[in-house]
Amino acid sequence: MAEDHAVDRGYWITWYDLPEAGRQEYLDWLHTSYISELLKAPRVLSGAHYQSLEKVQHPGTKGRLSHTSNDEVPTGDRYILIITGEDAHAFSNPPPSKLHKSLSDEDQKMLALRIGERVNIMVDEARVDGPAVATRDGVLLSPCIQLGNFNSSHWHDEEELTAWYAQWRMLCMQEMEGSVATRKLVSVSGWAKHAILYEFTSAEMRNKNFIDHESHNLKMEAWTDRVVRKLNHAPGSPNLAERIWPRVL
User: If we measure between CA atoms, which residue out of 150, 224, 159 comes closest to residue 191?
Assistant: First the structure.
């Protein structure tokens, strides 16, 4: 298990919405055909499909999170498809756009149902395991994730952002009950330069332990507030989502 866990360093992440009409047909196709075909490619390791939860509470004061006003950034976020590979180049020959153009007319009809589709190819910057890492099923991502994707408001703030993750947030996640792993990602292509992927055993454990996890350390809580206010998130980010494929048993 530990060896498998160490090799999934590349990520093809797609955020999108779906219409009501045709949704179930699309999901059946995605889960039984599309993902299984992707997993046949060399150096592609796993696929997981998530549905974002509604009315999510996040740490900190209301209004701390800022989102982009750039109307060129697609706004889909209700579904998140994550394909992992050995590295980013697992998704570069061909890249997603060319791969999709090579699919059948029926497959492209299904893909056309996606609304506000946004794509990033990303790689690990750093990762840590949490106390619940033993619950991991090989390289399959956990039943619950929180995924934020964002840019720094100013490039000169990125040094502090990296230091904050290294010196505080990821250390917290190593000790948090219900935390499986945390992965800080950086982008090869796509709008967001940064992403943070938290894996939890469940949304209940995330809500129980994550929301107030800094309340015991006011100094670090203040640092978090300062860093987070300098970020410019994608629409809907950060998303708390539950895995709908493979189904959680």
Answer: 150
Tokens of 47: 């696929």
Distance CA 92, CA 75 (A): 24
Q: What average pLDDT does range 86-91 have in this prediction?
A: 96
This prediction's pTM:
0.95
Per residue in 185-196, pLDDT (tens digit) is 999 999 999 999
- For 53, residues 6+ apart whose C-beta sits below 8 A from its C-beta are 203, 239, 240, 241, 242
Q: Are the C-beta atoms of 235 and 151 separated by less than 8 Å?
A: no
Structure tokens at 107: 């497959």
232, 151 contact by CB (below 8 A): yes
Would residue 150 be called left, alpha or beta, if left means φ above 0 and alpha means ψ between -120 and 50 degrees? beta
Give the CA angle between residues 45, 37, 91 to the nearest 5°: 50
Backbone torsion region of residue 138, taken as left when φ is above 0, otherwise alpha when ψ lies between -120 and 50, otherwise beta: left
Q: Is the pLDDT of residue 3 over 80?
A: no
SS3 state of residue 91 = helix
Q: What is the pLDDT of residue 248?
A: 82
Query: What is the distance between the alpha carbons of residues 104 and 164, in angstroms, rounded to a whole number?
Result: 46
**Alpha-carbon span 116 to 17, nearest angstrom:** 6
Q: How confident is the model at residue 111 (pLDDT cuts 50, 70, 90)?
A: very high
Domains of the chain, earliest start first: 2-245 (3.30.70.100)
Only one residue has tokens 């000169």, namely: 156
Mean pLDDT of the chain, nearest integer: 95
